[in-house]
Amino acid sequence: MIVLGLTGSIGMGKSTTAAMFREAGVPVHDSDETVHRLYAGKAAPSVEEAFPGTVVDGVVDRNRLSKQVLGNPEAMKRLEAIVHPLVRDEMADFLARSKQDGQKLVVLDIPLLFETGGRDRVDKVVVVSAPAEIQRQRVLERPGMTEEKFAAILAKQVPDAEKRLRADYIVDTGQGLEVARQAVTGIIADVLGDKGGIAAS
User: Fold this and answer.
1) pTM of full prediction above 0.90
2) In DSSP terms, which residues pair with 164 in a beta bridge?
3) Can you give the residue ranges of every domain in the chain?
4) Residue 7 in 3-state DSSP?
5) How far apart (Å, rounded) are the C-alpha atoms in residues 36 and 54?
6) Average pLDDT for residues 63-68, to the nearest whole number?
7) Which residues are annotated as a binding site?
8) Residue 118, Cβ neighbours under 10 Å: how many?
9) Which of 46, 114, 128, 196 has a 20 to 30 Å separation from 136 between CA atoms?
C-alpha cells in the first residue's frame, strides 16, 4: 500500500485537494478533522487540565485555546504533547484498516507534515500551493482571522518555497479547480504505475 502525505501552508487549498482525492476513490485521513473530534472527546480533559478555562460543555473552545497558545511556543509545545500522540494513534488505526481492506493507495492529510517529522511516515509528499497574494486573500477572509493571527501561523510553518522544493508532487490551486483536479488525477496514475496520467511533479 502506498501512503501519500498531503500538506500545504494555511490557505493553500489543501482541504479542497483532499476532497478531490476522496472523489477519485482514495481514502483520506484528515488530521484537522481528527483534532476536532478529539477536542470534543478524548483530548478535552487533558487540554482543560493544561489550559484551564478552555473547555466549554466538554468541548475544547478553539478561540479560548488559541488565546492561550498562539504566539507562545512553550504553551504550543504543551498542547502538541497532548494532541499529537492521539492523532498518531488514530492515523495508525486508519492505515491498519486500509491495509486490511486491500487499499493500494491512501492519503494522510497532515497540515504540519514537515514541521512534525511526518515525512518519515509517508512514501511520497504532495504539496498544495498557490501564489502568496491568493493565499493571503483566502486566509484573511476567514471569520475571526487577523493580520497578527495570520503572521503567527505562518511563523511556525515551513515556508511554501521550501515545501515545494521538498515535494514529490505539487498541486497548484491558484489556477482553478480544473487544473488542480487534473494534477490529482495525474498523481494517482503516476504513483499507481500508470504513466499515462498527467505527472504533476
Assistant:
1) no
2) none
3) 1-27+104-201, 39-102
4) strand
5) 14
6) 92
7) 11-16
8) 20
9) 114
pLDDT in tens, 89-133: 999 999 999 999 999 999 999 988 998 888 898 999 999 999 999
Residue type (1 letter), 81 = A
- What is the total residue count of the chain? 201
Task: Please name which of 26, 2, 21, 1 lies closest in space to residue 124, comparing C-alpha atoms.
Answer: 2
How much is the pLDDT for 194? 58
Tell me which residue of 21, 27, 1, 11 sits closest to 126, measured CA to CA.
21
Question: Among all chains, which residue has been given the C-alpha cell 488565546?
Answer: 67
> CA of 28: how far to CAs of 41, 80, 126, in Å?
21, 22, 13
Give per-residue pLDDT as tens, 37-53.
999 999 999 999 999 99
Residues comprising the binding site for ATP?
11-16
Q: What is the spatial distance between Cα 7 and Cα 47, in angstroms, rounded to a whole number?
A: 25
Kindly state the cell numbers that stand for 179: 487544473
Q: Is 159 exposed, middle or buried (0-12, 13-18, 19+ CB in 10 A)?
A: exposed
The grid coordinates listed for 162 are: 521550501
- Hey, what CATH class is 1-27+104-201 in? alpha beta
